[in-house]
Amino acid sequence: MAGDIVVRPVGAVRILDDGRQAVEIAPEYADGLHGIESLEHIWVLYWMHELPPAARARLRGHPYGDRARPERGVFALHSPFRPNPIGMTRVRLLGREGNRLIVEGLDALDGSPVIDIKSA
Amino acid sequence: MAGDIVVRPVGAVRILDDGRQAVEIAPEYADGLHGIESLEHIWVLYWMHELPPAARARLRGHPYGDRARPERGVFALHSPFRPNPIGMTRVRLLGREGNRLIVEGLDALDGSPVIDIKSA
Q: What whole-number distance in Å separates Cα of residue A26 and Cα of residue A30?
C-alpha cells in the first residue's frame, strides 16, 4: 500500500463560551469560504485528536456501542475507534462571522483539527 | 492551528481488468471488514494522489467547473482542487471478495490511497 499521507489542518473546531459550535478557518485558507453563506448544510471533516493511540488498533466494535448487538468491523461502523480517526459530519450552517462558521450538529471536541469542508 | 497529521492508508482503489471498481484493504486491516457484506452503501474516503501540488493552492473555483457560474470558495464546493484533496464518495457495495470490496459509483483513479470506510 501507499506510504503515509501528510494532512495539514485548515482550521479547528471551537466550542464558544455561549455553547455555540464553530469551525474556525486559518487566515491563509479563509478565501476558501467565499460564498459559503449561501449553503444550508456542509460536511465537516475533522481529526479526533484526543483518542488514545490504542483506539486506532481496534478493528471491531459493537454498533452504537451496544454490547447486545453483534460485533462488526470498524469499516462497517461509524465508531470513532478506527485506524484513521477521521470524523465526518453533515452539519447545519447557521452563519458566518469572518473566518468562523457557526454550525449546529457537530459532535466534535473543542480544538479538533479540521481537515476539510465540503458542500452538502 | 494544529500541526500536521499523518494518515496511514488502509487500502487502495483498484480498477479491475473487467472494469469493475474495487477497494482493496491491506491484510493488516482486513478484520475491519467483518460483517460489511450486510451493508448496501458505504462511504469511501480516499486521497486524490495524482493532483499536482498547485491544485492544492487554489482556494476558489467554479461550481461543476462551469465558468458561467460565479466562483466560490473551495470549502463551498466538491471540487477536487482543495488544500487537502480528500475524496469522499457514497458508493453501492456490490459484494466482497476476500480483502476486496466491489463497488459502484466510485469516481477515483486506480491506485488512489483509501484512508477510511464508513457505513452509509
A: 6
State yes or no: pLDDT of A1 exceeds 70: no
User: For A68-102, what is each residue's pLDDT tens digit?
Assistant: 999 999 999 988 999 999 999 999 999 999 999 99
Rounded to a whole number of angstroms, the distance between the first and last alpha carbons of chain B is 30
**Most B CBs within 10 Å, among A6, A34, A75, A117, to test the B interface:** A75
E strand spans, chain B = 5-7, 11-15, 21-25, 41-47, 60-61, 72-73, 86-97, 100-104, 113-119
Please count the other Cβ atoms lying within 10 Å of the Cβ belonging to residue A76. 24
Q: What is the ipTM of this complex?
A: 0.94
Q: For residues B39 and B51, what is the distance between their CA atoms, to the nearest angstrom?
A: 31
CATH of A11-49+85-119, one of 2.40.30.70, 3.30.465.10, 1.10.150.120, 2.20.25.160: 2.40.30.70
Mean pLDDT of B45-53: 93
Backbone angles phi, psi at B83, to 5 degrees: -55, -45
CB within 8 Å: A116 and B73? no
Read off the DSSP letter of residue A74.
G
B36 has a chain A CB within 8 A of its CB? yes
Q: Where do we find the cell 481529526?
A: A47
CB-based contact, A111 to chain B, within 8 Å: yes
The nearest CA of chain B is from the CA of A46 a distance in Å of 11
